[in-house]
Amino acid sequence: MHWCLDCGSALAEAEVEYQDKTSAAIDVAFRAVDKAAIFKKFNAEINSNDVAVVIWTTTPWTLPANMAVCLHPDFEYVLVKAKLASGEINLVLAEALHKSALDRYGADEYTVLGRCKGTALENLPLQHPFNDRQVPLIVGDHVTTETGTGAVHTAPGHGQDDFVIGQKYGLEVYNPVGGDGVFLADTPLFAGQHVNKANDAIVETLKNNNALLKYKSIRHSYPHCWRHKTPIIFRATPQWFISMEQNKLRTHALKAINNTQWMPDWGQARIESMVVNRPDWCISRQRTWGVPITLFVHKQTGELHPRTSELIEKVAGGIEKQGIDFWFSLEPEQLLGSDADQYDKVTDTLDVWFDSGVTHAAVLEQRKDLHYPADLYLEGSDQHRGWFQSSLLTSVAMNGVAPYKAVLTHGFTVDADGKKMSKSQGNVIAPQKVCDSLGADILRLWVASTDYSGEMSVSDEILKRMSDSYRRIRNTARFLLANLNGFEPSRDMIAADKMLPLDRWAVATTWHLQQNIITAYREYNFHSIYQKLHNFCAVELGSFYLDIIKDRQYTTQMNSLARRSAQTALYHIIEAMTRWLAPICSFTADEIWQAIPGDRNQSSVFISTWYEDLHDLPAEGRMNFDFWNTVLQVRTLVSKHLEDLRVAGSIGSSLDAEVDLYCDDALLKTLATLEDELRFVLITSYVRLHPLTSSSPGTEQQIDTRHKIRIITSASKHNKCIRCWHYREDVGQHSEHPELCGRCVSNVSGSGEVRKHA
RNA sequence: GUCUCGAUAGCUCAACUGGUAGAGCUCGCGAUCGAUAAUCGCGCGGUCAGAUGUUCGAAUCAUCUUCGAGACACCA
User: Fold this and answer.
1) How many CB atoms lie within 10 A of CB A721?
2) What number of other Cβ atoms are within 10 A of residue A235's Cβ?
3) Stretch A353-368: mean pLDDT
4) From the Cβ of A748, is strand B under 7 Å away?
5) Is 80 exceeded by the pLDDT of residue A226?
6) CATH 3.40.50.620 in chain A, residues?
7) Pick the CATH number of A625-717 from 3.30.70.360, 3.40.50.150, 3.30.2320.20, 3.20.19.10
8) Theoretical Cys-Cys bridge with A700: which of A103, A252, A422, A710, CB 3.0 to 4.6 Å?
9) Averaged confidence pLDDT in chain A
10) Which residue has the higher pLDDT, A545 or A18?
11) CA–C1' span, A131 to B28, in Å?
């Protein structure tokens, strides 16, 4: 286990980070017990000097636990007679490294006496440099020739590779270091010393024993505790594992992965390869806090107590009543009676990944309003190695299936340049600060607007844009609500087939958008919902529909069909839109909901379903989507022409203008269906239609690739109606209302104008 | 070091299975003053990260490079 001396605990892989550290790098001679045997293996002529295999290590404190020296079976090793400052000696070194090593030792003269493969030297005994112990030469494939000597000091108690190779050779897992980093009392020479302090004493001892060939401090990458930022050590301790192979856990987990929907889909490949390659899961931690592993282990045999399942139930009951300390303060006699002195109470705690991993059992299966498996697990993309996996393994082990039907991952938040946020860079944007300054709904809108499958950028500018967008959406809702003033749906709502075509278009557009939005929600495609919703507010509503219906809202009689039809559309739109908005801008949606007319019946937008009273436009009708698209294109072209007039100073408002449209036959026929109401759609005072042939050729424009149109705009010469702002020739013809146009007179004192289309 | 994902206008996103790069916002100019800490119109803005290749044709396919993010591994 990676062991942090400051935590006094094992660390999970994820808790280890690599930093540079200065270490003592030493070359140590392990003298051969049987000189003659070595010479013989190298087929070399014997001499009277000592023979030693040299190891190189950066952790001198692990030497007391040395149990072997490991060579690579296939590497070529040389036996060298070298003249060092301390005298002549025969050294065994990897051929590939012997020159650099001898150079390091200051050997001016040396002679290669012979060579042989590492495997030939297997099992020959060496003398430990300071302990009264002989250790064998062993061979393993993990030896490299990158650095060192080609011979690796092996301490099964202090290294993963060493532990594994030690198992193979039956080496004792000797770990003389306690959890506090101090050599145990029975450690020869160094008992009571802290490992970090013992390095010097060990180096000194090696020097005295004539075993130190070189001492040098080096700087290298070394594992550190992520919390304390201090170097950690590797320490073999007994641990509890969940086997990946027993009961075919790995196989079943892979099957469960395959039965789960992964979004984005590369998530599946990622977790699959992790599960294929992962070792058994070490679930025990030596911590003083956490969920205890409530086991009793026999002092001699190491077996679990025969009543373990029953005992765990009892402990669980106790913990439910008294909390986690029930276990830690439990006297074994309470549960085991006379067996107590035969058993050790395990004080290890569970890996925290286990805690969160079993939420499917501890939460989903415990609560009536939840169900197992979950519909969706949602977390950052780093959790393929974390929660998604720990949850999967425990669920598969318990129930044979994944704890989720689908898994959705999102990227990490980064700054405007795509850099990760870090305190030292000063580019961190704290969600709480955004909530405090801009409000939670804008933060939520940002989340929704971002494509979370990659990194999610946040910056002040982005948030500024979001609050702009938010205001647009909110203002649109506010306009809708304001124009619904006095509208009582149960009384004033107009049936679809009685509504004006433009209003039906608005409702149908809303209906189509709703289909897209529902699909997008089902696909967790939030950013496209945001785009569609915002565009709807800005384009279809703001710059077209709402702009046009203002005339009816403000000039026709309060209870006229013209006005109630528009209000009916507004009502349908706000009903639908509030629901679309609710999952994203919850506070705003809730606020809108309460202001929508009609009997809200103390309901909440959060428990309502999609609005179902929208209706599509009959495709075969004369004023279908095709028709309105053509009208929209005409309107766009007219706007450009009006802008020319405006820039020239001839007009301000578009109502100051009159428009003459010269159209090809088909287009003429299309536009003529709106009759005089085309002027309301274009928001101009007059619109006159003419055949294209009656205009001078060369200035016509293309619409739809199908139609040709020539547009002439001019400032109106008529008088402005003070009420509706249209410039009409009949203004002033009514003595009672000298400042009003004809339709306004009718609206003010007559039966009211009749609108058929828009 | 290895693997995976990503890079399109100042910002957020589009672009069906290769077929002339589109929206909205921002910005600029103007209008309006009956959505006003609003609203409407017009306009500016892109070597699709870079380079090669395949193709009649590449944002799209392939290879490489750069940058970014994540995961994995790790030196006795």
Assistant:
1) 24
2) 23
3) 91
4) no
5) no
6) 241-410
7) 3.30.2320.20
8) A710
9) 88
10) A545
11) 84
Q: Looking at the domain that runs over A241-410, which CATH code has it been given?
A: 3.40.50.620
Residue span(s) of chain A under CATH 3.30.2320.20 come to 625-717
| Interval A513-543: pLDDT, tens | 999 999 999 999 999 999 999 999 999 999 9
pLDDT in tens, A278-333: 878 888 887 777 889 999 988 877 788 999 999 999 999 999 999 988 998 999 99
Say yes or no to pLDDT of A111 above 80: yes
Is any atom of nucleic acid chain B found less than 7 Å from the CB of residue A622?
no
Which positions 364-403 on chain A have a beta carbon less than 7 angstroms from any atom of strand B? 381-382, 384-385
Q: Quick check: A200 pLDDT over 90?
A: no
Rounded to an integer, the average pLDDT of A489-506 is 96
Dist CA A125 CA A123 (whole Å): 6
CB proximity A652–strand B (7 Å threshold): yes
- Tell me the CA–C1' distance in angstroms for A21 and B71: 25
List of residues 6+ apart from A408 with CB closer than 8 A: A263, A376, A377, A378, A524
Query: Closest nucleotide (CA of A160 to C1')?
Result: B76
DSSP per residue, A259-308: TSEEESTHHHHHHHHHHHH---EE-EE--SSS-B---EEETTT-PBPTTH
The answer to whether A537 and A513 have CB atoms below 8 angstroms apart is no
Per-residue model confidence as pLDDT tens digits over A341-351 = 899 898 888 88
Q: Residue A299: its pLDDT value, please?
A: 81
**A710 in Cβ contact with A701 (< 8 Å):** yes
CATH of domain A2-234: 3.90.740.10
Q: Which helix (H) or strand (E) holds A205?
A: helix A195-208
Q: What is the token pair recorded at A247? A: 């009961």
Which nucleotide comes closest to A383 if you measure CA to C1'?
A: B71
Reported ipTM: the value is: 0.93
Euclidean distance between CA atoms A285 and A293, whole angstroms: 9
With contact defined as beta carbons under 8 Å apart, do A90 and A52 qualify? yes
Select from A75, A174, A152 the least CA-distant residue to A119. Answer: A75
Q: In the structure, what pLDDT confidence band is assigned to residue A12 with cuts at 50, 70 and 90?
A: low
Q: Does residue A460 reach within 7 angstroms of strand B, measured from its CB?
A: no
More confident residue, A421 or A611: A611
Q: Which nucleotide is nearest to A547 (CA to C1')?
A: B40
Instruction: Output DSSP code: residue A164.
Output: H
DSSP state of A539: I
What confidence category does residue A225 fall into, taking pLDDT thresholds of 50, 70 and 90? confident
What architecture does CATH give domain A460-607? Orthogonal Bundle (1.10)
Strand B, CB < 7 A, residues 188-217 of A: none
Between CA A356 and CA A392 the distance in angstroms is: 11
Q: Which residues make up the CATH 1.10.730.10 domain(s) of chain A? A: 460-607
Positive or negative CA dihedral for A331, A336, A342, A345?
Answer: negative
What is the token pair recorded at A619? 């495709």
Stretch A133-148: mean pLDDT: 81
- DSSP structure class, residue A214: E
Distances from the Cα of A207 to the Cα of A57, A86, A212, A590, angstroms? 15, 11, 5, 79
